[in-house]
């Protein structure tokens, strides 16, 4: 067996998302399966090294997963020829400087989103990577979730006819931390640390809408700071001054209206933490993270508005599940495999830093819309 070993510097993977989705369920899972099979006698095998600022956290993570290599010296790793890829899952304010340093060191780069704190910074990273001739990618994980792969199949097979509108509902109740520990880190709720749901989630909605329903050309967004006092990981109260909910409407170049509610202050009474309903002239669908339900025009009930009597229709009963005819891998792992094939085999990969910059742009425009309480056009990136 011919093995292409490829070293990956993994920065910021001591956090929840970095540990679970990128290290354990992606890179280590690829190792366990014997690498990425290229042919019957050829495979790509990632070799990670962990890097960060907290030696104790790095040591603990390393020991928990078979004594992985680790270091607190990023500069030394960037000068090490054994590692050709730099991955960044740090908090957003730290990302631009580290990714730029990696690009200048000649590393291919793959990073979480938002890729930077401004569109200008994000485009700087894209242009630097392009000029340096290094390969680059940005995590856009929801495109590989089973529910949205099923939804894309429906779109590709023209199940809906003309798509009229899309409604996304995302979020859950994040405990303020006073009586029960919060499920998200406290920096998410501090503006100075890069927190805020608009910056976090509109990056997701940009790539999801662009890839499924057409390019976003205008938007309006209303943010909110519903819970202004929270308690941090040490039980100390702090001012939570970042937006914790956003209510946004987007219009695409295909004329599709997409409305997305995003909130860390809502209790869930729907099928999943994220659901996206697509209404078309010939049918509708509701996609969650894993499942997708459909109702065709022929099976649509005929409701009549009458608030004086109990409604006789069981509206959920008229929906059918889209079968899972294919095997679905972890969404983060699926994109990691595509990126590693891109680096080693030069296969196409279109989810690069420019796509990441589009997400940052939409978040910035969402904040601008909220500030001025107006519709904002989305110009093409130069």
Set down the secondary structure blueprint:
Layout: E1 2-11, H1 16-32, E2 36-39, E3 42-51, H2 55-64, E4 69-71, H3 74-78, E5 83-88, H4 92-104, E6 108-111, H5 119-132, E7 136-138, H6 146-156, E8 163-171, H7 197-213, E9 216-224, E10 229-231, E11 237-239, E12 245-252, E13 257-263, E14 274-280, E15 283-287, E16 292-296, E17 320-321, H8 331-345, H9 353-372, E18 376-377
Parallel strand pairs: 1-3, 1-5, 3-4, 5-6, 6-7, 8-13
Antiparallel strand pairs: 2-3, 8-14, 9-12, 9-18, 10-11, 12-13, 14-15, 15-16, 16-17
Helix pairs in contact: 1-8, 4-5, 5-9, 7-9
Please describe what this structure looks like.
This protein has 382 residues and is of the alpha/beta class. It has 9 helices and 18 strands. It folds into 2 domains: 2-141 and 330-351, Rossmann fold, CATH 3.40.50; 142-328 and 361-376, Dihydrodipicolinate Reductase, domain 2 (2-Layer Sandwich). The longest helix is centred in the C-terminal third of the chain and has 20 residues, at 353-372. The strands form 3 sheets. A 9-stranded mixed beta sheet has the order 17-16-15-14-8-13-12-9-18. Strands 1, 2, 3, 4, 5, 6 and 7 form a 7-stranded mixed beta sheet that branches.
Please describe the structure with a list of short key phrases separated by commas or semicolons:
382 residues; alpha/beta; Rossmann fold; Dihydrodipicolinate Reductase, domain 2; 9-stranded mixed beta sheet; 7-stranded mixed beta sheet; 32% helix
């Amino acid at each position: 067996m011919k093995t292409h070993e490829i070293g990956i510097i993994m920065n910021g993977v001591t956090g929840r998302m970095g540990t679970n989705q990128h290290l354990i369920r992606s890179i280590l899972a690829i190792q366990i399966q014997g690498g990425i099979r290229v042919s019957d006698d050829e495979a790509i095998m990632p070799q990670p090294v962990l890097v960060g600022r907290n030696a104790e956290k790095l040591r603990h993570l390393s020991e928990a997963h078979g004594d992985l290599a680790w270091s607190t010296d990023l500069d030394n790793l960037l000068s090490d020829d054994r590692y050709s890829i730099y991955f960044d899952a740090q908090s957003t304010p730290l990302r631009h400087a580290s990714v730029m340093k990696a690009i200048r060191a000649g590393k291919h780069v793959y990073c979480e989103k938002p890729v930077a704190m401004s569109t200008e910074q994000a485009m700087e990273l894209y242009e630097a990577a392009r000029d340096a001739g290094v390969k680059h990618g940005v995590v856009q994980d929801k495109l590989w979730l089973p529910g949205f792969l099923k939804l894309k199949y429906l779109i590709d097979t023209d199940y809906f006819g003309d798509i009229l509108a899309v409604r996304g509902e995302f979020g859950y109740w994040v405990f303020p931390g006073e009586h029960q520990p919060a499920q998200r880190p406290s920096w998410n709720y501090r503006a100075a640390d890069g927190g805020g749901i608009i910056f976090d989630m509109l990056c997701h909605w940009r790539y999801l809408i662009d890839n499924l329903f057409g390019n976003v050309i205008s938007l309006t967004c209303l943010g909110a700071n519903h819970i202004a006092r929270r308690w941090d990981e040490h039980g100390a109260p702090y001012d939570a001054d970042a937006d914790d909910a956003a209510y946004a409407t987007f219009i695409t170049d295909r004329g599709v209206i997409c409305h997305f509610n995003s909130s860390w202050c809502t209790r869930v009474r729907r099928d999943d933490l994220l659901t996206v309903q697509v209404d078309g002239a010939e049918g509708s669908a509701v996609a969650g993270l894993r499942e997708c339900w459909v109702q065709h025009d022929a099976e649509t009930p005929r409701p009549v508005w009458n608030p004086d009597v109990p409604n006789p229709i069981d509206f959920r009963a008229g929906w059918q599940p889209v079968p899972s005819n294919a095997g679905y891998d972890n969404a983060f792992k699926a994109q990691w495999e595509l990126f590693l094939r891109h680096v080693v085999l030069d296969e196409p990969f279109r989810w690069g830093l420019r796509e990441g910059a589009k997400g940052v742009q939409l978040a910035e425009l969402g904040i601008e819309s909220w500030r001025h309480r107006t519709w904002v056009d989305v110009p093409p990136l130069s």
